[in-house]
Design brief:
The complex is a heterodimer of chains A (248) and B (235).
Chain A (H helix, E strand, L loop, with lengths): L2 E7 L8 E7 L8 H14 L22 E2 L2 E2 L21 E5 L8 E3 L2 E2 L2 H8 L22 H11 L6 H5 L6 H12 L2 H4 L2 H14 L10 H5 L7 H16 L1
Helix pairs in contact in A: 2-7, 3-5, 5-7, 5-9, 7-9
Chain B lengths: L1 H10 L4 H6 L1 H31 L1 H13 L1 H31 L16 H4 L1 H29 L9 H8 L3 H28 L7 H30 L1
Helix pairs in contact in B: 3-4, 3-5, 3-9, 3-10, 5-7, 7-9, 9-10
Classes of the chains: A alpha+beta (248), B mainly alpha (235).
Chain lengths: 248, 235
Amino acid sequence: MNLTLKVWRQANAEAKGRMETYPIADVSPDMSFLEMMDVLNEQLMGQGIDPIAFDHDCREGICGMCSMFINGEAHGPDRLVTTCQLHMRKFNDGDTITIEPFRAKAFPVIKDLTVDRSSFDRVQQAGGFVSVNTSGNTQDANSIPIDKHDADKAFDAAACIGCGACVATCKNASAMLFVSAKVSQYALLPQGKVEATDRVMNMVKQMDEEGFGNCTNTGACEVECPKGISLENIARMNREYLYASLKG
Amino acid sequence: MLLRVYALILVRKLNTMSLTSSTIGRKVAMALSGLFLVVFLTQHFTINFISVFSENTFNEISHFMGNNPLVQFILQPILIFGVIFHFIMGFVLEIQNRKSRVVQYNMYKGSANASWVSRNMIWSGAVVLSFLGLHFYDFWFPEMNYKYVEILPLDPNRYYEEMTHKFHDYLRVILYVISFGFLALHLFHGFASSFQSVGVNNKYSENIKKFAIAFSVVIPLGFIFIALFHHINSL
């Protein structure tokens, strides 16, 4: 496959970025998108051009590190996959592919296609955990009976890998799908219910302070989420937040 | 859980800070004001639809609504507050949302994952708001002038004629029809969406969505029918 790539280049956080066009030849349809980017970078280095910086780690669709806004969609046109699991067979010979970083005020560009997603870490640190007494008399988790339905829902929410596709996709750059998944995975379990009030209040407060937008229920985040996190989690977070606010 | 939430609303003092300054609080406020306006819309439609069948009944109900102190001095101010709150909050949220993405994408395929109506609520809302200006100019301001400025004598039989007179003008009818089209678009996303905002997403949600979609089609179509009916009758 011969392709034309239009890629966002930005030297650093302060520099003004621009779209650059690079042709690439002989792309195998079996390559992953990141492998294609590796080939492009080798080509660029051969030409004495600075390679394109992009995030990646496990390349197995489970770490949440890769990002990229490809042809107007987070993680590209495929569904329920991250960019590393997107394959070139999804494109056609002669295509022009536009590649941009995830864009949000809370995700500033570091360089080229890499963005700083530490705002997610700060939201998580604000309450996305269960405080555990490590004095030696902690109860065995398996001794606490949990309804299968709740356990499944909590597990589904915990599948969120925090990649930020929800924010990148949302027209308002809202992080509510991410935050609601983290709130839900604990709120549904007895171990998490103890701190449920503080958790939701603190995480939403941090989310707002980071500058994410409001949810307008377009549902785009759910469609683009590589892990299929449901909007049901946002409704649950809204309930938890309302209850926590009124409880005071 | 939901019942507990709403029970707490009744018995506990509202934590006003977090409920009006947070993203979720504003979203809930937006949804509740929208649901309130849906209730009002239903009542308004019911009264207007009666005008198709019975001039006398329409006059009787309009006279009651226009002169009952509870409606005039309690419900009407609440309604006006609801309308103003809904559109001001809508614009505040829109501005805040635009600030959350400073640099825009070169290519953004919004239609790949969300409906046009859900992405353009601000525009459908702006058209409905403009329509409210025309509607107030047509009916509310003359009514306020009649009752509270010029203080003209009570006439329980004037309402039907005043309304049909307005719908004689075909340009006004066209504007009303277009506006109700945008109202349908606004309700198409907004009505069902408001349930999600207040935390309702369960086994009933599919049926709620179907009802909301039916409502968003039937009610605006009904308003269009009423406008056309009176226009044709006046020819």
